[in-house]
């Protein structure tokens, strides 16, 4: 906290409920608030950027991370101003937008790597793409098969609304599909919590969610580092997006989008643990 005057100008409210993380930054009328919904991967970027913007310009924000698919659906239903997504918009969503006469504007705001994570006590340090595919599709079911301890593997995956799950499945799993007995989790935060608490578990998150409660596993011998993500060496890299409806976007929304692409906005991307443009 800074000062009492600052607290009067802006207040910060975080709620964790039903697997979602919501942020409210308020300093003006509710009707003036910019509503952002979508990817829990992009969420830390939106939180940092909206804090910086609110402090500088006095704009209110409501930010909720419940999945890329949810954010895009909310945008097309008029329930938010900006949709966050960790995947590009899908063909079916483009068709829905066309039928609703929605003019979508797509902006890439940063880059990310999908990182494999295990419990810190797991001795496995590296997995090949083929091993990852076999584990998540249910063909490899014991850690001993990939150089670990003789214990069953607990597969943790994101649910169907997740952009991270969509990219991971498309790049790694298809056409096999995720194992039927996989634990399906609603957010990246829930994924970290689940893997950190289970020595048998394996999961995946965006680079910005790595912390000391979990252990990262290299993929094909390549470590997830900013350098390897930027130069394209890391095998599971991706872009991070925001979407708006250009027909309804207010000047405030458009100005905030410009801010995200500015030096300060890209600092928010870096500070959130992701890769700036």
General description of the model:
With 277 residues, the chain is an alpha/beta fold. The chain is 33% helix and 26% strand. The chain contains 10 helices and 12 strands. Strands 1, 2, 3, 4, 5, 6, 7, 8, 9, 10, 11 and 12 form a 12-stranded mixed β-sheet that branches. The longest helix has 15 residues, at 43-57. The chain is globular, with a radius of gyration of 19 Å.
Gross morphology? globular
User: What is the overall pLDDT average?
Assistant: 90
Structural class: alpha/beta
Largest sheet entry: 12 strands, mixed
Q: Which helices and strands occur, and which strands form pairs?
A:
Elements: H1 4-9, E1 11-17, E2 20-26, E3 34-38, H2 43-57, E4 61-65, H3 68-76, E5 82-85, H4 91-99, E6 104-118, E7 126-127, H5 129-136, E8 154-158, H6 163-173, E9 183-185, H7 188-196, E10 201-206, E11 215-219, H8 226-230, E12 237-245, H9 251-261, H10 263-271
Parallel strand pairs: 3-4, 3-5, 7-11, 8-9, 8-10
Antiparallel strand pairs: 1-2, 2-4, 5-12, 6-10, 6-11, 6-12
Helix pairs in contact: 2-10, 9-10
List keywords for this structure.
globular; alpha/beta; 12-stranded mixed sheet; disordered N terminus; 277 residues
């Amino acid at each position: 906290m800074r000062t009492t005057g600052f607290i009067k100008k802006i207040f910060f409210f975080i709620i964790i409920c039903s697997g979602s993380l919501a942020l409210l930054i308020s300093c003006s009328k509710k009707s003036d608030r910019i509503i952002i919904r979508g990817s829990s991967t992009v969420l830390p970027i939106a939180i940092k950027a909206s804090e910086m913007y609110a402090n500088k310009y006095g704009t209110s924000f409501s930010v909720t991370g419940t999945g890329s698919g949810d954010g895009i659906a909310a945008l097309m239903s008029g329930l938010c101003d900006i949709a966050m997504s960790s995947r590009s918009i899908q063909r079916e969503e483009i068709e829905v937008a066309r039928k609703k006469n929605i003019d979508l504007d797509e902006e890439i705001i940063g880059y990310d790597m999908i990182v494999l994570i295990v419990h810190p006590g797991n001795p496995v340090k590296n997995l090949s793409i083929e091993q990852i595919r076999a584990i998540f599709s249910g063909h490899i079911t014991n850690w001993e098969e990939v150089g670990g301890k003789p214990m069953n593997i607990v597969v943790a995956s994101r649910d169907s609304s997740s952009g991270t799950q969509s990219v991971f499945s498309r790049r790694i799993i298809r056409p096999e599909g995720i194992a039927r007995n996989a634990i399906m989790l609603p957010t990246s935060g829930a994924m970290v919590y689940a893997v950190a608490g289970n020595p048998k578990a394996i999961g995946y998150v965006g680079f910005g969610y790595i912390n000391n409660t979990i252990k990262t596993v290299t993929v094909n011998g390549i470590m997830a580092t900013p350098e390897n993500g930027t130069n394209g060496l890391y095998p599971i890299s991706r872009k991070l997006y925001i979407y708006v409806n250009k027909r309804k976007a207010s000047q405030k929304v458009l100005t905030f989008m410009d801010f995200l692409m500015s030096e300060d906005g890209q600092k928010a991307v870096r500070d959130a643990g992701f890769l700036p443009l």
